Amino acid sequence: MAPTGLRERKKRRTEASIVEAAFGLFNERGFEAATIAEVAERAEAAVGTLYNYFESKSHILVAVLLAETKKYAEQAAEQAARTTHTIKNSSAGGLSAVRARLMAYSDAYLESYSSHSRQLWLEMFSGLFKGRARADELFSSDSNALGPISTLITPVELTDGATEGVGATAMHLREALTIHSVIMAALLQYITDERVGLDEAKRVARERIRQLASRG
Predict the structure, then answer these.
(1) Which helix (H) or strand (E) holds 175?
(2) pLDDT tens, 81-120?
(3) What stretch(es) of the chain map to CATH 1.10.357?
(4) Range(s) within the chain of domains with CATH label 1.10.10.60
(5) What is the pLDDT of residues 33-52, one digit of tens each?
(6) Residue-wise DSSP of the chain
């Protein structure tokens, strides 16, 4: 059993190395310009080895986006979760703790994408659809964010011991997907329209979340 475990760990490390190398090259040269051979060289792997893990550059792109989406969502959720303590120990001005956490998540998630150029994300998202990624692959990108969001939208304990949640109940994955869709719409607007700054994208997402959270 041990050799099998070692092989699996090595495979995961190799795959992660390829994904990391690819993202670095896409950032430096652009998705279209970067080649499979360059990715393999950066990852210190043979081209044949790379094809053992990914059928094409488009499949590598899917893996890159899945990895970044997961990382950004988890980091944003951790940051947003800390908002609960702030809300509990200060006057929230009527703003629910759940809503505050969702807005904090949205801000942090959108902020993550500003660490790289809009052009990079535009080219990568365009490449995703040009490469005809399967529907399940696209949904996997969304589902990476649903878990972290779900942890933020369950009822939370307030200072008076009561619980409060959107619609007075724990939101289901359907509601989490709605929140994620709102954030992604703001993100795509930011990526595709240079007139839309990051602050405006955050404002749009926060306002839509405010409206959704007030329906309950």
Answers:
(1) helix 173-192
(2) 887 655 555 544 445 778 888 999 999 999 999 999 999 9
(3) 64-213
(4) 1-54
(5) 999 999 999 999 999 999 99
(6) -HHHHHHHHHHHHHHHHHHHHHHHHHHHH-TTT--HHHHHHHTT--HHHHHHH-SSHHHHHHHHHHHHHHHHHHHHHHHHHTHHHHHHTS--TT--HHHHHHHHHHHHHHHHHTTS-HHHHHHHHHHHHHTT--HHHHHHHHHHHHHHHHHHSS-EE-TTS-EE-GGGS---HHHHHHHHHHHHHHHHHHHH-TTS-HHHHHHHHHHHHHHHHT--
Q: What topology is assigned to 1-54 in CATH? A: Arc Repressor Mutant, subunit A (1.10.10)
What CATH number is given for 64-213 in this structure?
1.10.357
What local confidence, expressed as pLDDT, does residue 167 receive? 41
For the entire predicted model, the pTM comes to: 0.78
